[in-house]
Design brief:
By secondary structure, this protein is of the alpha+beta class. It has helices at 18-49, 55-67, 79-97, 233-248, 254-288, 299-302, 317-329, 332-345, 390-403, 419-437, 439-443, 451-461; strands at residues 4-15, 114-117, 126-127, 135-138, 142-147, 174-183, 186-197, 207-212, 218-220, 225-226, 291-295, 349-353, 378-380, 387-389, 408-409. The structure holds zinc ion (ZN).
Length: 467
C-alpha cells in the first residue's frame, strides 16, 4: 500500500569561504533587483494600460536587461535564479488576487537575501557523489561544504571502512528545488523534496479540543496545559537596549553592522527556542490524536492597531499594544500551520469551530453568560454550578461544537494517500459525537503517561488496513 506523498524541506548550514559568501550576496542582490524592478514594472504597466505584465513578457525583458549597459552584473547570477525571482513575483500576484496574501511588497536587503534553483536536475545540482560527502555543487558556486544538522546524518560508523561508506544523505527521495538563504548567523541551503511517507495507519481514533490563550498557550480538553517559552520581560529589555545601540551608531559604519548582527542572532535564538517547543507540541498532538478541534481565530482583527484612526482614537493604547505583542508572541498562526500538516501526515484531521462565546459557555449544560467566568482561570456555571479551569472548559466547548457539526475541516487531504484513510474519518467523527453525547467521557479526563509509550502501544494494537 502506498503512503502519503508530501513535500519536505531539509535544511543545512552552508560553510562558505569569504569570496563565495560575497558571490552569494551578489546573486541574492541580483534576484532582489529583478524582483523589485518587476514589481515596479507591473505597477507602472497597470497604471498606464490598466493591464498587468505577465510572467512570460517579464522573462523577455530579462534578456534585454542583461544586455543593457550598466546591468552587466546581472550575468554573474545564474539565469534560472533570476527567472525564479520573476516566477516568485508572479506567484505573489496570484496569491494576492485569490485573496490569500497582501499586495506584494518590495524585497529588502538584509531581510530577503535568497535565491532559488528551480530544479533538482543533476546537471545543475550535484549531491551524494562518492568522495564528496557533505558537499553540494551549485551553479556558479561550485562544490560547497554543508554542515550536518541532523543526528540521523551521523559520522561514519567504526565498523564501516571509508571506501565502503556511502556517506550521509543530505535529503531523501526526489529533489524538487534548492534554495539558498541568508539568516542572522549565516547562509543556509534548503533541499525541497517530494517524499513518500509510510502509510499512517488508522491512528488512535482519539479526539481533542484545543483552546489557545495568552496565560496558557494551549489548553487541551483532557485537562493538559502547555506554556510556550515566549520572550520574557528581561529579554524584551535586552532587545530594546541592543536596538538603541544600533540606532545610536552611524549608518553604514562597521560597529552598527556588528551590533545589528548581534541583535539578529539574539532574536534568532529566541525564535528557535519557541519554534522547537512548538514543533514538539504539535508532533505530540498529531501522534496522540486523530482529530483536533480548534476555535476559529481572527488574529488580524484581535491585533488591529491600538492607536485607532484620527477620527476615532483608540482607548487604553499602551495596554492594547502590550496584549497585541503577547498574542503575536504566541504564534497561533504558526501553531495552526504545523498542526495542520502534521495531522495530515499522521492521517488525522483538524476541524475549526466558531469561536463566539466559547469562553462563556458551560461545557456541561450549555448555559452562556459572561458571569460564568469568575477570573482568568476559574469557571463556575451560574446555572448548574459546574466548576472547571476556564481554558479547559473552553477547549471542551470547542470539541463539542465540532461534534455537533458546527465546525469545518481545515486540514488538507493527503495527496496520494490510501483510499482507506478517508473512509475511516466518519467513524472517527462518530466517536467524537458519541463522546459529546456522553458528558461523562469529557468530565473524567484521562491523564496520559509519557507519549512515547502510548504511541508504541497504539502502533502495536492498530493494524494497517491491508497489511
Ligand atoms: Zn452549566
Amino acid at each position: 500500500m502506498s503512503g502519503v506523498i508530501v513535500h519536505r524541506t531539509y535544511r543545512h548550514k552552508l560553510i562558505l569561504a569569504p569570496e563565495k559568501e560575497g558571490l552569494c550576496r551578489r546573486i541574492a542582490g541580483c534576484c532582489r533587483l529583478v524582483y523589485n524592478c518587476g514589481l515596479e514594472q507591473r505597477k507602472l504597466g497597470y497604471a498606464a494600460t490598466g493591464r498587468g505584465i505577465g510572467y512570460k513578457a517579464h522573462t523577455y525583458f530579462l534578456k534585454e536587461a542583461k544586455a543593457a549597459e550598466g546591468f552587466e552584473f546581472l550575468r554573474e547570477a545564474p539565469a534560472h535564479c533570476l527567472q525564479q525571482a520573476l516566477k516568485d513575483l508572479d506567484d505573489a500576484y496570484t496569491r494576492f488576487f485569490s485573496g490569500q496574501n497582501r499586495y506584494p511588497r518590495p524585497r529588502r536587503r538584509g531581510e530577503n537575501d535568497s535565491f532559488r534553483f528551480p530544479d533538482g536536475d543533476p546537471k545543475q545540482i550535484g549531491v551524494h557523489e562518492p568522495g564528496r560527502h557533505n558537499q553540494v555543487r551549485l551553479p556558479k558556486l561550485g562544490w560547497t561544504a554543508v554542515r550536518n544538522s541532523y543526528p540521523r546524518l551521523a559520522r561514519r560508523p567504526w565498523n564501516v571502512r571509508p571506501e565502503e561508506w556511502e556517506g550521509p544523505r543530505l535529503f531523501e527521495d526526489e529533489l524538487k528545488s534548492v534554495t539558498v538563504r541568508r539568516e542572522a548567523d549565516g547562509w543556509y541551503v534548503s533541499f525541497c523534496c517530494e517524499v513518500e511517507l509510510p502509510d499512517p495507519g488508522r491512528g488512535t481514533g482519539e479526539a481533542v479540543g484545543i483552546d489557545r490563550g495568552v496565560a496558557n498557550s494551549v489548553a487541551q480538553s483532557n485537562g493538559e496545559m502547555f506554556h510556550l517559552p515566549v520572550i520574557t520581560e528581561a529579554e524584551w529589555r535586552t532587545i530594546a537596549s541592543l536596538q538603541r545601540i544600533v540606532n545610536r551608531r552611524r549608518k553604514g559604519s562597521r560597529n552598527r553592522e556588528k551590533t545589528k548582527g548581534r541583535l539578529g542572532r539574539y532574536r534568532q535564538r529566541l525564535a528557535r527556542r519557541k519554534h522547537d517547543a512548538l514543533h514538539k507540541l504539535t508532533r505530540d498532538l498529531s501522534r496522540r490524536f486523530s482529530l483536533a478541534a480548534i476555535e476559529e481565530l481572527r488574529i488580524k482583527n484581535m491585533t488591529a492597531s491600538a492607536k485607532g484612526t484620527i477620527e476615532e482614537p483608540g482607548k487604553n493604547v499602551a495596554a492594547k499594544a502590550g496584549l497585541n505583542r503577547a498574542i503575536l508572541d504566541q504564534c497561533w498562526g504558526e501553531f495552526e500551520r504545523q498542526l495542520n500538516y502534521k495531522m495530515t501526515w499522521a492521517g488525522g484531521e483538524v476541524w475549526e469551530a466558531p469561536a463566539r462565546n466559547s469562553s462563556n459557555e458551560c461545557e456541561a449544560c450549555g448555559y452562556v453568560d459572561p458571569e460564568n467566568r469568575e477570573s482568568q482561570a476559574v469557571f463556575v456555571c451560574k446555572s448548574c454550578g459546574h466548576e472547571r479551569h476556564a481554558d479547559v472548559n473552553a477547549a471542551n466547548v470547542v470539541l463539542l461544537r465540532v461534534g455537533r457539526g458546527e465546525g469545518k475541516l481545515i486540514s488538507s487531504k493527503p495527496s496520494g494517500g490510501t483510499p482507506g484513510r478517508g473512509e475511516t474519518t466518519p467513524s472517527q467523527r462518530a466517536k467524537v459525537r458519541n463522546a459529546c453525547e456522553d458528558p461523562a467521557v469529557l468530565k473524567t479526563p484521562e491523564r496520559r503517561g509519557p507519549s512515547r509509550k502510548r504511541t508504541a502501544r497504539a502502533q502495536a494494537t492498530s493494524t494497517p488496513l491491508a497489511a
